[in-house]
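hey so i finally got around to running the thing on that chain from the lab meeting. sorry it took forever, my laptop kept dying and i had to restart like 3 times. anyway pasting the input first so we r on the same page abt which one it is
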Amino acid sequence: MLAKKRFGQNFLHDRNMIDKIVRSIAPKENDTIVEIGPGRGAITFPLLASGCRLDAVEIDKDLIPGLYETCPTPEKFHLHHADALTFDFGVIAPSFRLVGNLPYNISTPLLFHLMTFTSHISDIHVMLQREVVDRIVAKPHSKTYGRLSVMLQYYCDVERLFLIPPGVFDPAPKIDSALLRLTPKKSRPLNAKQEQYLEALVKLAFGQRRKTLRNNLKTILSQEGWKNSSIDAQQRAENLSVEDFVTLTQEIEKNGDLCNW
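ok and heres what got predicted. didnt touch it at all, straight out
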């Protein structure tokens, strides 16, 4: 089965890299694992060898017959023909682990979608474009630190495990990939409504990176409102830590100075 460009498919085929990735995931017999984009089953079947239950979400209907035909433990394998961007992962199990080789063209919106299911997810191991992984693990005061860094670090502990070269995929992409581990935090400082405010705040703050917070956030925080804030309005968004963004969200809500949330 040839890879389809419209689905952003790059099939993993290198046995050494497959083994390295599976060792990093360390599946166990009592695990429920959800895989996004099983493709030809390169990771799927080694994971199933642990005895785990595996639910796969695959958008390409042409891959489905081959996965069922070659699956060594069909009684443990459940396949959902669906688009991961809109799939309700919460229906699979109360708690599960998530893995996947995420298509480059939808990786960012898909990660944000997955963050809405963190109460169900124990950990996440995904292959992503190296540049995206670098942005996710970036720290304040760097050019790669941005909205993706703040939001994923708010929801999860993040760790780049290792690089994955182009040659282990078919077809080979033109760029390096990396394996990322995300571990959802058991508790977070904001409630659900405040988290919506945080997302809106962070998006606005990084809207124009060269501008100050005062300029980027003028639609939601007045000049008077900044006087009651512990955050310096003359800073740029890239200088604020995740904790600073949380503090600013709480202060704006507390002061009732929500011009246009």
